[in-house]
Amino acid sequence: MIKTVIHVLPLNHYKSVVTFLTTIIVFLSTNKKHLKGKHLFFIELQNGYENNFSVLKGLISSSLSNVYFFKGNRELIFCLSKYKNVELYFHQLPSVKLRFLIFIYCTLIRKIQYNWIVWGGDLYDDNYYRIILKDPTSHRNLKNTVVYFVNKLFVRRLKSTCSISGDYKAFKLLYPNSTAVHKRFFYPNKNILKFSKILSSYKKNVNILISHSASKENNHLEIIERLEGLKECDNTTIYAVLSYGGDMNYINSIVSEGKKKFGKNFIPVVDFMNSEQYNIFLQKIDIAYFASNRQSSIFTSVTMLSAGVKMILKPSTSTYSFFIKNGVKVYDFNQTHDIEDILNIDFHDIERNSKIIKNMYSEKSILRIHQGIFK
Is the terminal CB of the chain with fewer CB neighbours within 10 Å at N or C? Predict the structure, then answer.
């Protein structure tokens, strides 16, 4: 009997998720003859999905026979009951209520296991910050207590976590009793960019990007403080992408502090860019300075490295260890203090990084990884 591989994915109000889902669905659909099983995609229509719904349907029109949309947890459970030989993959952890229902359904009714493809924030939640990182701003309350209880139930039936290796280590710290195995995994990235840096142009004008979104977890103020020595440097422009992922009070505080420190050389990006516009924007960046304490923006980081961007990351993150393990030269946030160190760009390193990334994310390499998972 042919195995039915069911992928459960979210569609919400974030415009960037449309491109992401399209990449996944199109890649797996076009390579179905190389992958075992029949692959179906069940997309959960979350809050604010309406604006993205028609756009996504247009982009995946060639794959629509494999795609089903559902709204409501019972609808998914009903759909799952139609298939006998099922392998279930959750791309991002589903809602708390759905986690609980899936655990009950797969434990008491179907007696099957499922798999979790880690995105980032679904693993590194309030409980991770509170329990593992001992973050003083994260406090135990009824909400995160319930979430952690449900998660511990959910991972009892978990067959594998699909992620980069550092994320699996974080998973085992948070859920030490889980028997889930690790499967090496990363998504295809169609935004691998052409290396277009020119050696002679360096030191003239330097564009620095501080983080990729407006989330408080990106610690923008920490970076702004580090870069204070650039306030008299007219050939440096500092960009902050604040078009999604944060609340207005936080965004306003970043804009205010950035303008106060750097004046006209600080440019907040508050308008959403489509994929093409974003790639053009990333190609003009020379240095990416990220201060998140967890894995985030790995998709964007890969895109920038392919274009020859120097990346500065915190060494405690799985993103940092992932790149180092694969021979990509990224810089230690804790060791890169001086302005001279920050601005220094080794052309040969970034050119080599670009070649490594393009090899890692070639269609052949990505297909080999997916064949190892869906076997």
Answer: N
